[in-house]
Design brief:
The strands form three sheets. A nine-stranded mixed β-sheet has the order 5-4-1-6-11-8-12-10-9. The protein has a two-stranded antiparallel sheet with strand order 2-3. It has a single domain, classed as Spore Coat Polysaccharide Biosynthesis Protein SpsA, Chain A. The protein starts with a strand and ends with a helix. A hairpin with a 2-residue loop joins strand 2 and strand 3. It is of the alpha/beta class. Helices cover 32% and strands 22% of the residues. The longest helix has 15 residues. It binds 1-O-phosphono-alpha-D-glucopyranose. 1-O-phosphono-alpha-D-glucopyranose binds next to strand 11 and helix 8.
């Protein structure tokens, strides 16, 4: 993979998860046994990314402490069962801050010096792309980079279909032509959170992007059309890129799905899904959930009473 730099925006306040995130980073919430941002860093490392800039902000310092951790100390702490592969993958992590919550576009603009003249990956720090089957190097990140390079594109955006009602929660793509299955497609437009009446499709932005460095000029141009203190959207900058070169949507394939910690509903599902898949703790967790469901249906005893008896 020739694109070796990635940016993880992780400065958002996480107000939809208050009070859980009142004084800590939502990116540090665990999905299974690892903080969500560790899953993101591992996904990037597996796709061949070598340098990562994490955009942090107020109350986000635990992120830096987490990636500082000395693998020998962690091994001791976890009786030698700690999977240290991330710390041996040769990925370098850098940090900068977005001091005021002025939107995703503004956060990405903090990466200008880090990216220089190179195209780069953006992976949102509160979302992971999970798999039902092993990807064997064909994960969405790899397909995004290939689509970007093979088409000399200005941007490539991972996408998946959401319900009409959910089009108010995401950036939504307007395909230029017919979409064939999960093949990459060119865009004629992209709109931020349009809602069902205005949505040009149900193809939502799925938290992963490859962007050309001209996006920084588009972000700056976008600042002129927002009032002081208003959010600068990345979606608006990508819309500006469509005039400069082709922009592609790259659909998740049938075995890929997105998990996030955007609010409590998605966080609860994402945690359960990753915990159930955990090689060490998954079986016991699923067994507990079965008992809990039986109890809630009035068919079984309280599972915590059951656990105490065992
Ligand atoms: C951001 C983007 C949106 C994208 C979403 C994916 O929204 O602005 O276009 O679809 O991430 O998670 P946010 O969730 O930060 O409101």
């Amino acid at each position: 993979m020739r694109i070796s730099k990635a940016v993880i925006p992780a400065a958002g306040r996480g107000s939809r998860l208050y009070p859980a995130t009142k004084s800590q980073a939502k990116e540090m919430l665990p999905l299974g046994t690892k903080p969500v941002i560790q899953h993101v860093v591992e996904e990037l490392a597996e796709a061949g990314v070598r340098q990562i800039l994490i955009i942090t902000g107020r109350l986000k310092r635990a992120i830096e402490d987490h990636f500082d951790a000395d693998p020998r100390w962690l091994e001791e702490l976890s009786n030698g069962e700690f999977d240290g592969h991330l710390w041996h993958s040769g990925v370098e992590i850098f940090y900068t801050r977005q001091s005021h919550p002025l939107g995703l576009g503004d956060a990405i603009s903090r990466a200008r010096a880090f990216c220089g003249c190179d195209p780069f990956v953006v992976a949102l720090g509160d979302s992971i792309i999970a798999n039902r089957a092993p990807q064997e190097g064909r994960g969405v990140m790899t397909r995004l980079v290939e689509t970007f390079e093979q088409n000399d594109a200005a941007a490539a955006v991972a996408t998946y279909q959401v319900t009409a009602a959910d089009t108010k929660r995401y950036g939504i793509l307007a395909p230029a032509g017919e979409v064939k299955g999960t093949e990459a497609f060119a865009l004629k437009d992209i709109v931020e959170k349009p809602g069902p009446e205005k949505a040009p499709s149900r193809w939502a932005v799925a938290a992963r992007y490859v962007l050309c460095p001209e996006v920084f000029d588009e972000i700056d141009a976008g600042r002129e059309s927002v009032g002081p203190g208003e959010e600068v959207q990345l979606t608006a900058a990508i819309r500006g890129l469509i005039g400069r070169g082709p922009v592609y949507g790259v659909p998740l394939d049938a075995d890929e799905f997105r998990l996030d910690v955007g609010d409590f509903a998605t966080y609860g599902r994402s945690f359960a899904r990753m915990m159930a898949a955990d090689p060490r703790h998954g079986k016991g967790f699923v067994e507990y959930l079965r008992h809990l469901m039986g109890y809630m249906d009035g068919m079984e005893a309280d599972p915590d009473a059951w656990a105490a008896e065992e």
